[in-house]
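Incident log, structure service

09:12 report received: a user says their structure output differs between two submissions of the same chain.
09:20 pulled the input from the user's history:
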Amino acid sequence: MDDVPGPVPRSERVSLRRPLGHRGLETLAAHYVRQTFKPHSHPEYLIGVITGGVHSVWCRGERHTVLPGTLMSMRPGDVHHGNAAVEAGWVQRMFYVDEDTMAEILGDCLDASSASLPDFERCNRHDGALAARLERIHDIVHASRLTLSRDAAWVAFADVVTVLAGGASGDGALSASPDARVRKLVDYLHAHVREDVSLDTLSSLAGLRRRQTIDLFKRQTGLPPHAYHIGLKVRLVQDRLREGHSPAAAAMEAGFADQSHMA
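09:34 re-ran on a clean worker, output below:
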């Protein structure tokens, strides 16, 4: 659950990124086999999930054997060390989130500029459904090239952190009646189908916070804004293919990096 301390053996795979252009966030996807981490700590929160193999980790005075489907939550300063518990090693997806960024994203769930920082009672929790959800979120934040998809996943990440900290997942209480703000957002997405739209842009148009924008849009259209926008892009590609354009040209016009991102 840690940064790479040096050269990585060939049998191991590590991808460390800073998505969203955010200095307060890094994401790690790794398969460690022979790597051993000495006792150390981080100034950031570590939130992640074990997706394969078995990891042996010491944290807060206990040695834990961590299986797939387990979420990890460590506070800044939590000393930990670990290694593989089986010959095949372990696979993990990890978020490194600094305190200012954590307060900001949790505050967004509460319609506030910031929130109190979480103090996790446990450093690990086995919950298959929540682990699968965090894995999907990590896949998008770590690898998606669409800004709106990454933004929406980042909001969903705050929900997972809230659950791990002992709270309830956020659920907006916005009205289900027709709302002119949603019509404005729908029109904007149609007009900018070829572009890489951000959640901040939509939130500004609606005059809402990021989480409220997603909740209201989904409640009234049946889809979150990133999924709605991708659907528009896919339909544009289909139209262009029927007109005889090549898959690569159609993907480029719709704002996909290449045709593989249409899948």
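09:41 both user submissions now match this output. Likely a transient worker issue. Closing.
09:42 reviewer note: The two ends are 30 Å apart (CA to CA). The chain has eight helices and ten strands.
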